[in-house]
Each structure stands twice: as structure tokens, then as C-alpha cells.
Amino acid sequence: MEGDLPTEFYRKKSEIRVRVNLTLLAMSFTLFTFISALNAQMLRDNVFLALQLTLAIPLIISSIFARSKLTYTKRTKKWSDYGFYTFIIAYTFLINSVGIILSYVISFNIAIIFFLLNIGGALTYSMLDISEHKDNIKKRVKKDWIFILGVIVLGILPAALSS
What we know:
This protein is mainly α. Helices cover about 85% and strands about 0% of the residues.
């Protein structure tokens, strides 16, 4: 694909990913506004929550720009990788923010169920993807490793500390 103009497949894939990112961006803004209006102290009390929630927004925007560029660039690998990494970090931050809020507002037990379900969902997706495309194993391991490590270190541990 590198060096060629994007095919219709990659254009469609890019459009879908941009729409997913736009939805996550709307969720991030809504969550940030909701917390700021109802309990801004929660953001002041938990630096992990404040940082991850606020950093998710520009990271999602960067992912949107990168993924929309895929529709007209010849260097798709570079833009696809950048879009992916900004997306996975932003997505991890957003999941962590929700989990930390659950721990803060409800309980750590509910938050841990939320975190584990997200990790399980990612692993299930990867297993299905690998069963369909055996050559995706290295890519899926790398993607899952980033997500799971991010959830454990920046989500579960801070949630445990805030509960």
C-alpha cells in the first residue's frame, strides 16, 4: 500500500475510524464537562483522572486528523501508525477515566469489573482477529500490550488508590 494512492477499502476504513474517533471525542468532552460541572473536586483530587481525561481530547483529535489523511495520502503506513498510537493511548485514557470515576463514585469492585471487562473485550477481539488473519498476531499482541499495560498502570492502580 505504501507509495500507492489509497484504495476504496482504505478510504472506507478511514471514514469508519474517523466516525468512531468523533464519537469518542464527543464522549470525552461530555464526560469532562459533566465532571467539571457536578464535581470539579474529583478532578482536583485525582491527577491521574484529570490528566487522562484532558489528554484524551487532543489525542483523539490528532487521531482524527491522521486517519482522515489516509483518504488522500500516498504514505499510508506512517499516518495509519500515528493515528493508531494516538487512538490507543486516548482510548486507554478514556477507559481509565471512566474506571477511576466508578471507583471514586461507586466502588473499586465495580471499577475493577469495568476494567477487566474492557481487557477481556480487547483480548476477545484480538483472538477473533487472529483466527481470521493469522498474520495479525504480532500487531494484535503489540496493540493489546499497550492497552492492557496502560489500563493496569494508569487505570487500575490509580482507581485502587482513590477508593
